[in-house]
Specification:
Blueprint lengths: L8 H13 L3 E5 L1 H5 L6 H11 L14 H12 L3 H11 L3 H4 L3 H9 L3 E4 L5 H8 L5 E3 L2 H4 L8 E4 L14 H7 L5 H11 L2 E5 L6 H17 L8 E4 L5 H9 L2 E4 L6 H21 L2
Helix pairs in contact: 1-14, 3-4, 7-14
Length: 285
Amino acid sequence: MERGSSRGAFQVLEDLVGAIKKRQAILFAGAGVSMTVGLPSWSTLIEHIAEELDIDLSKFNGNDLNYLTLAEFYRIRQGSIGPLRSWMDRHWTLPEEKLKKSRVHELICRLDFPIIYTTNFDRNLETAFDLQDKDYVKIVNAKDIARIREGVPQIVKYHGDFDDDDSIVIAETDYLDRLSFESPLDIKFRSDALGKTILFIGYSMTDLNIRFLLHRLWKTWAGSGYERDRPQSFVFMLRPNPVEHAVLEQWGLRVLMEKDCPPEKALETFLAKLCKAVEQEEEGV
């Protein structure tokens, strides 16, 4: 495990392990977690929208269309995002038998984070908890926050959930509205994150909402006069990217990698090492 600074990888792991052991760490899980079990990529979503709306993708250059703008166009043309949400629900929800084989989901459950934020709409994290017979509270909106129970892990669906069309952040307007960073889940995240370590996994860090969230958190600490007291946070990345490393570390995040591991196995390898280290720490090894 490596990162882009002079501090040893061993000490970095120790810091993260200590925070997890004290239940002072939050997991923030992105699309890369779902893709480890074969869920469609955003490019598949673009292709589906184009097919349903009879859009010829060959007439657009590679960067001319993204799923946010296409989803916004879909909502305009179809009147609502409901049919698209239904298609995504069918294609992005895994059978339990397949999810049982997901080592990544098993390891997330074993690490026992008190709070997991996810930008994924699918129910696979919740199903993984059910398969491990672990209790949890799912939080999608302000009403759900009142259901939080002491000692019970929270799964916070930061960009919405397939069970609630209105909660889903998928179209461009949804993303721009969230840039106010003032929704109930945004306020909850600021409260949770100010006092805890955060581990981001499954992100390419191109998500504008997540980048804005990280920047706002950094600015909050920088303006407080107590930046040195900020709990350390981490981003796991699949591939080296010195540009991203420099920006993220400026914002106070340590970049973690599995340097000699194939990208498709890197997240599982990292979580397995992390889980082993936490369990050894708990056993006093």
